Amino acid sequence: MGAKKSLVDWLGEVADPRTGPAKRHDLVEILVVAICGILSGAESWTEIELWGQLKLAWLRRYLRLENGIASHDTFGRVFRLLDSRQFEAAFRGWVKGVIGAVRGGIAVDGKTVRGSHDGERRAIHMVSVWATRLGLALGQEKVAEKSNEIDAVPELLQALALKGCLVSIDAMGCQREIARCIRQMGADYLLAVKGNQESLEQSLVEYFDAGRLERLSASSGHLETVEKDHGRIERRRYWLAENVFGLVDASRWQDCRQVGVVESVRDTGHGKPSVERRYFITSASCNVAEFAAAVRDHWQIENKLHWSLDVIFREDACRVRKDHAAHNFAILRRFGLNLLRLDTSSPKLSLLRRRRRAAWDDDYLARILNLQPVG
C-alpha cells in the first residue's frame, strides 16, 4: 500500500489555468503560500503577498520558490481563473484521506458570503456538509446564480461517501428528491418540516396534539432536558413516534419511519417564556435520545462552521469577488479551519488562538500543514 497523500500532493492534482510566460510561479507553491497566509491571519491577496515576503526565508525550507513570492495581482489572477471544482475536489480528497470513512451525524446547511457581491451580481451562496462527530467540514457546493440550495444539496451529497450516516437538513432541504437521494446513498435523513411543506407540517401539528403528547410522555418516546446559561433557562422536550396510519406517505417520502417534535421553552426571567415547536421526519430507526442528540448536533454547522468562518476568518468582510476568486477563497478558508480543528496538540487553545499561534510559531504552522523540507 502506498503512502497516504499529503495536502501538498492533493494540491498537485489541481490543473494550472495559466499558459506560457504567465506560469512564472509554480501553482502548488501559490496554493501552499495562500493557505499558509490565511492560517496566519491574511484576509486578502495583498496581505498574503506581504506575509509571503516576510516569511520568504522560512518558506524556502519547504518550497523552492525560484522566482520568489508572487505579487498580489498574480494571486488574484490565478484564483480568478482556477477551476473551483478541481480545487474543491482536492479539498474533499484531502479530508477523506485524513479521516477515512465518515460515521455518525452529517449536517447540511447554506451560508451566503456577504462581501462577495459585485455590482448587480449577488453574493455567492455556499452549501456545506459538516461531520458532527469529527467537527470537520467535508465539502461545499456553490449554489448556481439562477438556482437554489435544493438543486445544490443532492449534487454535493452524491459526491461524498455517507453510507450509514444520518443526514440532517433544515426546512429548505425538506424535499422528496433530497430524501430519495439520501436513501439511495445508503444513508438516513432527518428533515425539519416547516411552511414550505405546508400540508405535511399541518398533518404533524394535528397528529401531535395534547393528548398524543401526553401519551408519548408516559412512554419511551419522550425526553426532557434543561439548560441554564447566563440567567436564561431553556427547557427542551422531545417526542418521537412511529410513522403510523399513513401520516407521512412513505412512498413519496422514501422510507419515512418516524416523526418527531421538539418543544423549546425559553425563560429569561423577563416577561412570559417563549415557546417554539419544530417538527421532523426521519428514515432512521432511532430512539428518542438519539433523535434528540441528532437535532442538537445539527446546530454545530452554525456554531462551529459558519460562526468560525465569520468570527475567526472574517468571511463576510472579505471583498474578494471576481470570477472564481470568491469561491476559491471560501475553499481556502475551509482548508484553514479544518487544519486548525485537526490539531490535537493544544486542545485547550481556542481556534482563534490556534490561528494566532500559526502566525507566531513557524514550527507549529509547518507541523499542522505537514510540510516537508525541500530535498
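the 2nd protein, sequnce then structure:
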Amino acid sequence: MGSYHITVLKGDGIGPDVVTEAMGVLECVGKKYGHDFVFNEKLAGGCAYDAYGEPLPEETLEACKNGDAILLGAVGGPKWDHLPANLRPEAGALLKLRSSLGLYANLRPAIIHKALSDASPIKPEIIGDSLDILVVRELTGGIYFGERGYREGKHGEEAYDVEAYSEFEIKRIAVQAFEAAMKRNKHVTSIDKANVLESSKLWRRTVTEVAKDYPEVELDHMYVDNAAMQLVRNPKHFDVIVTSNIFGDIISDEASQITGSIGMLPSASLADGAFGMYEPIHGSAPDIAGQDKANPIATILSVAMMFRYSFQKPDEAAAIERAVDAVLAEGWRTPDIAGPGDVPIGTKKMGQLIREHI
C-alpha cells in the first residue's frame, strides 16, 4: 500500500499522447497492488513558453520539488528552434530541471525485446535474440555545465567550452553504476578519454578507487572511440556502462539505435535518495502529435523504472515489463515498430492492451 504524488509534465508534440497512456498504466497498477496516485499536471517546454514566456515556470519547478517523482513526455520542436538558448525547451527546461533538482545520474537501458530482435541493424549472429545494456551517464557536470564563452584569438574570434569534473561528481556516479551492476551481471565498463584529457585521467583514477568497494564487480576501462566501435562489433561485452555527460549523450544514443527501436527505450534521471524524473528517450515528433500514431511503450517502461527506483516496488515494475513483453509477443505493433505485413495499432490501443495484461 502507498500513496504517491507524481508531477506530470506532458510537454510538447507526442508528449501528451504517450504520457496519457502511461498515467493509465500507473492507475491500473495502483488498482492491482493497492497504491494511490495523485497527479499534479504542470507545463514545461515549448507549451510553457507559449503560455508563460518561459520553458520552465517557477510554479512548475516548485511542483517538481514537492512531488515524489516526475513523469515527463517530451519537450521541444522546430517551432521553438529560433529562440535564444536559455528559452529553448531543451536547455531552458531540461537542463534547468536536472541542475535545479540535482538529477545527476541518468540511467538509460538499451534493451532488445526478443519479439523485436529482427529490428536491430546489427547482424543476428552478433546480436542474438536479445540485448540488455544499462548506460549510466553523469548528468549535471562536464562540458554542458562548464565555463563557456567567446574570446579574441590569434586567427579571429574563438569559442570555448570547458570540460571539468570533481572527484566528488565522479565518485557518486560511479557508485550508482556499481550498485546497478550488483543487481545485474556484475560488470562495469567505464568510458573515458584518459589518453588525452586530464578530466578523464581523474575520472579513471576515481572509478578505479570506487571499484575497490565492489570486489564482486568486474571493471574494465575503454577509450570512448574504441567503445563506440565495440558497441557495434561486440555489444554483448557490455553490462553497465558508466561515463561522462557528453560521452554518455553520444554512447547512449548509439546503444539505443542498436536496439532498432528508439520508441521502446525508457530512462530515469535520479538524485540522491529516491527522487527521480522518468521519460522516454525519443523526441517530441510534432509531425504525428495527436494522431494516435506514437509508440507509448518507452513512456510506459519509464513508469516501470519509476516503480523500481523511486518507489522501491520491483514487483510492480516487473508486472509492467511482463505486460509489454506479452503484447509484443502477440504481434501487436505501433507504426514505428511495424514490419512488412504487420497491421499497426494506435497509441491508445497499445496502452489498452498493456493495461489488460497487467
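The mean pLDDT is 94. Residues 15-33 form the longest helix (19 residues).
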